[in-house]
Amino acid sequence: MTPVGFVLIGAGSRGADAYAPYAQHHPDEARIVAVAEPDPVRRAKIADLHDIPADRCFGSYDELFAQGQLAQAALICTQDAMHVEPTLAALALGYHVLLEKPMATTPIDCTRLVMAAEAANRMLVIGHVLRYTDFFFLLHELLSAGKIGDIITVAHRENVAHWHMAHSFVRGNWRSKAESTPMILAKCCHDLDIMVWNLGQNITHVGSFGSLSNYQSGRAPAGAPARCLDGCPVESTCAWSAKRIYLDLEPFPHLRDTVAKGEPLPSVWPFNVLSTDTNYAARLAAVQNGPYGRCVYHCDNDVVDHQVVTMEFANGVTASLTMHGMGFEEDRTMRYDGTLGTLTGVFNAQGGRIEIHPHRGTPEVYEVDGRAGHGGGDTGIMKNFVAAIRDGGTPRSTAHESLESHLLAFASEDARISRDVIDMAQYRAKLRATVEGSKQ
Ligand SMILES: NC(=O)c1ccc[n+]([C@@H]2O[C@H](COP(=O)([O-])OP(=O)(O)OC[C@H]3O[C@@H](n4cnc5c(N)ncnc54)[C@H](O)[C@@H]3O)[C@@H](O)[C@H]2O)c1
């Protein structure tokens, strides 16, 4: 079987470590034939791993796209604000595109991308990896099979671990709304996507509340300096100490064991974000000098650390989504109540557990293993995308469906700020008219 050829745009954490490994592990299905990555170390590493010739390695996506179409598909894994231009270029050249979420940083650009994919008759799949996990697939199947009857109400929580909140949304790449996106989009477009998928209905109205409560200077302990290692008086007891997270590896017992055995710390998230090298000296330098060593109360973050979204679906179902960055561990929990019973679910780094409690009858319990990246979703989305290209099928999530969750996230942010309830039909129609108008 001829493998599907890919060009990789952005060989960072997601491009190099989440999606490209699929080609290494399934060489008969996928092959990375070219890369665009400005960082020479990252570029050389991916070229080496995938045997990409020097004349197929580029410093930027515009150089790569200037060569014309080099493969069937493009993996676009640049940062949030750099999604639109390479995606439009790739679609125009005839590539099918797997684009990382969020599609774009404005609702208008998200809408433009979907319309461009339609016009080019190319597949545009967004990195909604949760849909491709065994856990959420089973959850969807159980609900679709009517195990709890007609769904009446849903409560879904995204409990972001306190150290993850600090890493990504206080010290890291998604801390600033202007530089990336609102947190409800960055973190919860997956969750909104899952809810819309399970309900099979559009949402009619959205309301939202939330704010930045903890990770701001007003909460700083007395005498806390700008960086954890600059003599902070509470460093040894602070849950967010950069030493504790990145040097002592406290939230990662399995990695602590690896290092204790004298083995190197693998290049895995979140350490691959600190520096290319993940040894102790490199991590110490990053904590001493880089953004990840900053006190969580003295950063330049402005995204919320807790938000609640309430929704009404077209069939009258009500739902709430709670997201917060104060979790003792990372998980998603959910409860669906229906005419015939209740479904509860817990999804975390190990996999998950789903329980069905019928109003009458015996409960059912399902345990799902999911230790691979994003519960197996990183591999699952690649497998599905490759199969859709090769066999001409429809991917499990279409750009149209992904657009809905993105628009919901933007609308939630608008609702949070305005304190208004957003009418989604009006919201969608206004956007489409704006995009149509801008094309005339
Ligand atoms: N699906 C998910 O669950 C999930 C999880 C985490 C991140 N993401 C998203 O994935 C995207 C990438 O995140 P990341 O953590 O891998 O970021 P990253 O910063 O590690 O990687 C981005 C890469 O793009 C490269 N780049 C910059 N300019 C470029 C150019 N002109 N041409 C080609 N490459 C260029 C950078 O050098 C970097 O290596 C983001 O949009 C992020 O929000 C998705």
- Runs with pLDDT <50, length 5+? none
Ligands, ions, cofactors: nicotinamide-adenine-dinucleotide
β-strand amount: 15-25%
Helical fraction = 25-40%
User: How many separate domains make up the residues?
Assistant: 3
Tally of contiguous helical segments? 16
CATH superfamily of the largest domain: Dihydrodipicolinate Reductase, domain 2
CATH class category name of the largest domain = Alpha Beta
Helix-and-strand structural type: alpha/beta
CATH architect. name of the largest domain: 2-Layer Sandwich
Mean pLDDT, all residues: 95
Query: Which term fits the overall shape?
Result: globular
Q: Strand arrangement, largest sheet?
A: 14-13-12-11-7-10-9-8-15
The CATH topology of the largest domain is what? Answer: Dihydrodipicolinate Reductase, domain 2
Written account of the structure:
- With 440 residues, the protein is an alpha/beta fold.
- It folds into three domains: 4-126, NAD(P)-binding Rossmann-like Domain (Rossmann fold), CATH 3.40.50.720; 131-215 and 301-375 and 393-439, Dihydrodipicolinate Reductase, domain 2; 217-293, no CATH class.
- 38% of the residues lie in helices and 22% in strands.
- The strands form two sheets. It has a nine-stranded mixed β-sheet with strand order 14-13-12-11-7-10-9-8-15. It has a six-stranded parallel β-sheet with strand order 3-2-1-4-5-6, with helices on both faces.
- Helix 5 (84-93) runs parallel beside helix 6 (107-120) and helix 6 runs antiparallel to helix 15 (399-418).
- The protein is globular and about 55 Å long.
- It starts with a strand and ends with a helix.
- The chain binds nicotinamide-adenine-dinucleotide.
- Nicotinamide-adenine-dinucleotide is lined by residues 9-15, 36-39, 42, 60-61, 77-80, 82, 100-101, 127, 129, 374.
